[in-house]
Amino acid sequence: MSKTMQNLLSKDDSALVIFKAGQTVKGSIVDVTPSRTLLELPGGATGIITKREGAVYGDEAATDVGAEIEATVIDPENEQGLTMLSLRRASQDTAWAELSTIQDDERIIKVKIEEANKGGLMAKYKGLKAFLPVSQLMPMNYPRVEGADSAEILRKLQGHIGKEFAVRALNVDREQGKIIISEKLAHQTQMKETLKNIQIGDVVEGVVSGVVKFGLFVTFGGVEGLVHVSEMEWGHVSDPSKNHGIGDKVEVMIIGKEGDKLSFSIKQLSEDPWLKTAEAYSEGQEVTGKVTRWNDNGVFIEIASDVQGLFSIDQFDAERGSELTGNVKEGQEMTGKIAMINTDAHRLELTRV
């Protein structure tokens, strides 16, 4: 037994204060060894902090003799007459209290991502584990995967390990030991401001946040919208990933806005090349082309490269495309008169002659 320990135990205990478990006390460090720390407490009591209970936020407490620290009582008096204390629990008590205030005040904090699972990300706030669900991630960080491939979702989420996220506390429940955080909430003000200030027709620069078979997801100002595959180029796009990847900067036009759902277009930022092609035609003009297909809308013919004509189905005394089979053949030449130049559908509406 050290001399310091002997001196502390030999004190007259008639004036000692007996503390209660869970109580927070302050004391001055009087002795430190690798395995424990001794404190002088109010009323002459002696407190002891073991190595395990001296860990704060996952690290061993670094304190010097004479320093005043705050700890939580876990045993008012052990077999040696010492008050068992915990810095670890004191730090957790402080962290829980802080998080509760942070939630009430709607403050933004930063956390570092340490783990990932299929449901979301795990972070720590001053030693306390916090869960960031997938649904509370910002669009740029959302693991967008086609076909709900759980392995791919997990792989993408694991890519966030080590990153620092700005979040808000969504739910702090000490009784259940649960802390739910949200990245979306932290950017809510920015998102609302962006949505308030944009209008249909505006042109903005964003970043590709997702590439799927039906188009591109693009984010800017904390919000996200979709460039449908039909709005990527004036021609047919078979593979959206061919010319675009996640992280690419792209300029888009806002063409739809419904609440926080946005629709974008890339192709409308350039002139429709079909309009130039259509200048060679006029209403009333006769044209000839070869049949390419037919359906319930009618018979389609190819007049020239990128120029298509349509005879409506009612011109064939039919109601369904199946009734046209036998009356028309693929490759058959047909002549018609231009009734209308349909710039929206990129085709010539024809009447039979």
- The CATH superfamily of the largest domain is known as Nucleic acid-binding proteins
| CATH level-3 fold name of the largest domain | OB fold (Dihydrolipoamide Acetyltransferase, E2P)
How many strands, what sense, and barrel or not for the largest sheet? 5 strands, mixed, barrel
Count of DSSP strands: 22
Overall pLDDT level: 88
Count up the domains. 4
What is the name of the CATH class of the largest domain?
Mainly Beta
How are the strands of the biggest sheet laid out side by side? Answer: 1-2-3-7-6
Strand content: 35-45%
What's the quaternary structure here? single chain
Rounded to the nearest angstrom, the distance between the terminal CA atoms is 115 Å
N-to-C series of helices and strands: HEEEEEEEHEEEHEEHHEEEEEHEEEEE
Low-confidence stretches: none
Query: Which CATH-level-2 architecture of the largest domain?
Result: Beta Barrel
- The helix tally amounts to 6
Q: What is the molecular shape?
A: rod-shaped
Q: Based on helices, strands and strand pairing, what is the structural class?
A: alpha+beta
Helix fraction by DSSP (H/I, runs of at least 4): 10-25%
What is the topology?
Layout: H1 3-9, E1 24-32, E2 36-40, E3 46-50, E4 55-56, E5 59-60, E6 68-75, E7 83-86, H2 87-105, E8 108-117, E9 120-125, E10 128-133, H3 150-158, E11 164-173, E12 178-182, H4 183-186, H5 188-197, E13 203-212, E14 215-220, E15 223-228, E16 249-258, E17 261-265, H6 273-278, E18 286-295, E19 298-304, E20 307-312, E21 333-342, E22 347-352
Parallel strand pairs: 3-7, 15-17, 20-22
Antiparallel strand pairs: 1-2, 1-6, 2-3, 4-5, 6-7, 8-9, 8-11, 9-10, 11-12, 13-14, 13-16, 14-15, 16-17, 18-19, 18-21, 19-20, 21-22
